[in-house]
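User: quick one, sequence for these tokens?
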């Protein structure tokens, strides 16, 4: 029986140091995947001795990855534990590792912004600035040192927490814990995709479907309003009474769509992109195609 391979404290410290450069290389296709793969290199070299196994592991970690850079550490830790279990013959496949990564990166990303960008950083910045405005050089030094100390300590301890938690998960492979986590992560990932589609995907149709002439008493007659501030006050009063600001009521296609199926085009576009990716269409090709369609639709007055 071969000796069990395990990541040492020095190995994990090396990985922790590399994780500082998670966003050193970033791209629109797979986001932080290059920085993630760079972080995992010491573990891959330690856990896998065969070149083909190292290549497979590196390829596995070149998939899409994106989260807040300061909360990626627990994901790193859990992934290290899963890779360690796999290297020692455990039943951990590519889907399990990728599923756990995807399932964790979404919820953790929502924690990073309010904790670091909106709480810790402003507090330290305000403290440093209050000293700096009085000419005290300790101000910027305090901000720089305290910020990086908090950041790096947080990365280290949460990576260790993830690693130890991941090792507990892999102890009961026969009990299906990892399979349950993978399934839950996949479900959570679908919810995250739905939320992101609603928040970040935007399609607005610009053409109208009807234009109806309103009754003479249903709209504001601007030429009959008093001059000056009195006219402005009267206009606000008539708007409050429900009068239209124009003599015609224009209904756009987008208004009808939002009334019947709000957000349906966002969802359909997301499904289209997923289908194209499944058909092995390059993400770059999809991005360029969306740019072209959007520009042509804008010029044609459709969107």
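Assistant:
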């Amino acid at each position: 029986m071969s000796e069990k391979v395990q990541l040492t404290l020095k190995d994990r410290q090396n990985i922790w140091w590399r994780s500082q450069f998670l966003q050193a290389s970033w791209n629109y296709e797979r986001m932080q995947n290059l920085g993630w793969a760079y972080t995992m290199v010491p573990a891959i070299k330690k856990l896998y001795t065969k070149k083909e196994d190292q290549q497979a592991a590196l390829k596995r970690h070149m998939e899409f990855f994106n989260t807040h850079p300061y909360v990626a550490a627990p994901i790193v830790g859990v992934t290290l534990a899963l890779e360690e279990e796999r290297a020692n013959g455990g039943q951990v496949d590519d889907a399990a590792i990728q599923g756990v990564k995807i399932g964790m990166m979404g919820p953790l990303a929502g924690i990073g912004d309010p904790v670091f960008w909106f709480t810790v950083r402003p507090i330290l910045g305000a403290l440093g600035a209050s000293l700096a405005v009085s000419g005290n050089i300790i101000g910027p030094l305090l901000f720089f040192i305290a910020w990086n100390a908090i950041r790096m300590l947080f990365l280290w301890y949460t990576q260790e927490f993830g690693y130890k938690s991941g090792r507990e998960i892999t102890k009961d492979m026969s009990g299906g814990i990892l399979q349950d986590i993978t399934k839950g992560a996949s479900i959570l990932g679908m919810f995250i995709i739905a939320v992101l589609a609603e928040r970040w995907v935007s399609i607005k149709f610009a053409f109208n479907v009807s234009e109806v002439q309103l009754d003479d008493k249903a709209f504001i007659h601007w030429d009959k309003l008093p001059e000056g501030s009195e006219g402005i006050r009267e206009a606000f009063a008539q708007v409050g009474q429900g009068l239209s600001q124009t003599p015609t009521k224009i209904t756009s296609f987008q208004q009808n769509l939002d009334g019947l199926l709000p957000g349906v085009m966002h969802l359909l576009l997301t499904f289209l992109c997923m289908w194209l990716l499944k058909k092995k269409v390059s993400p770059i090709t999809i991005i360029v195609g969306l740019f072209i369609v959007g520009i042509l639709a804008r010029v044609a007055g459709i969107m």
